Amino acid sequence: MNKVLTIIIGALIMLAMATLVLVALPYRQLKDELPPEQLKPYTIAQLRGRDTYVSMGCVYCHSQQPRAATLGPDGLRGWGRAPVSADYVYDYPHLLGVSRTGPDLFNIGARQPSVDWHLTHLYQPRSVTPGSVMPAYPFLFKVVGHPAPGEKVVTLPPPYAPPGGQVVATQEALDLVAYLTSLNHTYPVPTDESGATQ
Amino acid sequence: MTYTISVLLALSFLISVLGLFMFIWALTHGLMRAGPDAAQVIFEKGEVGVVEEPAISSRQRVALQKIESNSIDTYFSADSQGIAAASPELEAREAQDRSSRAAAFAFLTSSILWLVLGSVAGLIASQKLTSPDFLTQTAWLTFGRVRTAHLNMVIYGWASMAGLGIALWMLPRLLKTDLVGERFAVAGAGLWNAGVAAGVVAIVSGWTDGLQWLEIPWQIGILLALGGALCAVPLFLTLMQRKVDHLYVSVWYISAALVWFPILYVVAKVPYVHFGVEQAIVNWWYAHNVLGLWLTPLGLGAAYYFIAKVLGRPIYSYNLSLIGFWALAMFYSQAGIHHLIGGPVPNWLVSVSVVQSVMMIVPVLAVGVNQHMTVAGRFATLRYSPTLRFVVLGAVLYTLVSLQGALEALPFFNRLVHFTQYKVAHAHLGLYGFFSMIMFGSIYFVMPRVLEREWPYPKLITWHFWLVVIGFAIYFVFLTIGGVLQGVAMLDAARPFMDSVQVLMPYLWARTLGGLLMTAGHFLFAYHFFAMVLDRGPARSGRAFIGGAPSVGA
């Protein structure tokens, strides 16, 4: 083979084919999809919380895509039904995730709706989930002597409470929890086998 | 619906196989104008059968040559007289090597700095998984950011820059002309470094685009796209000046990679176009192709050159390398969606990717057989040539990682290992076992020619090799076992999820240990590299050798 053009054009054709099949066709198929009726757009606070979820890299340990019963016991663990593409209409960037060092979070808001639990868990995961390897996020909280009125105090079991003050949540922590508790895709969706809504 | 899917599946399989047979037919009927002389284009007349290994001293080179000469085929023996030191061919090669010095030096030096930084970040991230309260006081050291900084530094800093540096250095030799437009490549190195550095700072400070492998914000990513495109300029300028009839197999891989990368990156990064699940599809199309269509061709291009050149022996089959190249381009480019098996993506899309992942066995075996048969009967040379030791190991692991990848794409196995650390081990087998090993070997060959100076401490090369090989073996074996156990625990509904976390613990500790050894190896490598650059260390026989005879001044 001695023609540079053969290589370059051949290489471009191959990539064009792949882009057509893997990018253009799915784009066409999915672009006009409507959100399911019960799926609400994120509020401003939830969107800010989602940004924190993205910037802290939660996606590297938590997926947001429960698998169907044929592929694992996700449903039995209470992680929810297999999702459809319409469930993700409001997601930018997408947070499907391909790792489960921690559990799937697609329905964490339904499974664990308590704001207090989430705040305690974020401040020190091992205080509520022994054995957890999730990092603690103390920098999302402040330790104050006397919480001001309106400040959200985090309840902590004694061994984890810092000496000389109380832990209060920053706005960033509250937003993050607002996002986490909003993750609830337990509404029913009509599906066909291709995973797209009808 | 099931009917449609199976028809689609059968159809895409049929088209793939048909395409392959048409291609082989074209090949056997001479339409590609390939032949054994194309495989010899990297040798001068009389050079076949003569070893080249600038990474070792002249005494060891004699030993290396002896092994090669003893195992040489009768077909070549009449021709292997070597060439005289002052021949015009070798002078031309000296000039070619000099023409790419600045570009190769800029890229390789940067790559080694990124390798060291990236390894340290990886080590911290690994430690955090076993000690989750380690370094949690500030946001920029949280696991999700350090891990991501590690990935971006080793992919875009180390692997990409090493691959580009080696590719730019090989081009003038492969095309037998001086590198044209070297300053574009040097400018590319500057932009690329700026892009990676700014990108990593952005990630640890919390500014990210949030897609795996594409975290560097697109505003900064423009630097990477431009830097990559600038490196393609000397490729095309030099191609136009080429003084060879045949384009060696490495040239195809390098040309294709340099055309592919900017397109892949721009399509995946273009902001506010992709959405929801479609974005996840594009995300994994890209993440898979950055390995398959960017790093793999750069790595294989280097392996095809250095294995043949060190041994002084043309690759086993030129036709096999053609099949390997085109099948890689065709199948690898469509395999990415196997990362989303079981996810909310259209079924037909997953089917296509699973079929293509399995078809990847074709190019992998083509490359594997080809490279193995080139080395076969000469494995004793690995004792003397550090370049071969690293590159041949990398080539073997390429075969392994690709077969493993095909297996992982099969739904029955994917069910077990998806979402587990098994995937992390697999990714490292590809990027470290295959790609980085080949880059290490290539750098040992190239740097003495770039600096025209020998490696000051040959023992350190041996230390580097064993540290990273043992470290990586620990890393891979333990994480693979741990990943399977994690998968077994996750699939068992009777066991709480926490079981899958706890069962991993000893294996995560082992990963940190393996990573520690690998990082130690990288520090030694970097020390040796800079000792050579700064001309420290014991006085040696002088300028590194070229071809079969010492170059001027030895």
Query: Numbering strands along the chain, what is their spatial order in the largest sheet of chain A?
Result: 1-2
The outline of chain A comes out as: elongated
Average pLDDT of chain A, rounded to a whole number, is 92
Helix content of chain A: 25-40%
Query: What distance separates the N and C termini of chain A?
Result: 50 Å
What class would the helix/strand composition of chain A place it in?
A: mainly alpha
Structural class given helices, strands, pairing of chain B?
mainly alpha
Tally of contiguous helical segments of chain B: 20
Evaluate the radius of gyration of chain A. Answer: 22 Å
Task: Give me the oligomer status.
Answer: heterodimer
Task: Please outline the major beta sheet of chain A.
Answer: 2 strands, antiparallel
Largest sheet of chain B: none
Q: Beta fraction of the residues of chain B?
A: under 5%
Tell me the strand percentage band of chain A. under 5%
Low-pLDDT sequence parts of chain A: 193-198
Q: Count all strands of chain B and give the number.
A: 0
Report how far apart the termini of chain B are.
Answer: 73 Å
Greatest interface by residues involved: A-B, 77 and 92 residues
Low-confidence stretches of chain B: 74-80, 547-554
Helix % of chain B is over 70%
H/E series of chain A: HHHHEEH
Keywords, please?
heterodimer; A: 198 residues; mainly alpha; 2 strands; 32% helix; disordered C terminus; B: 554 residues
Topology:
The complex is a heterodimer of chains A (198) and B (554).
Chain A: H1 4-30, H2 44-55, H3 108-111, H4 115-123, E1 141-144, E2 166-169, H5 171-182
Antiparallel strand pairs in A: 1-2
Helix pairs in contact in A: 2-5, 4-5
Chain B: H1 2-28, H2 36-39, H3 58-70, H4 74-77, H5 88-99, H6 101-130, H7 143-175, H8 182-204, H9 218-240, H10 249-269, H11 276-311, H12 318-332, H13 347-359, H14 361-375, H15 386-409, H16 411-417, H17 421-451, H18 458-491, H19 497-502, H20 505-533
Helix pairs in contact in B: 1-12, 1-13, 5-7, 6-7, 6-8, 6-17, 6-20, 7-8, 7-9, 7-11, 7-17, 8-9, 9-10, 10-11, 11-12, 11-14, 11-15, 11-17, 12-14, 13-15, 14-15, 15-17, 17-18, 18-20
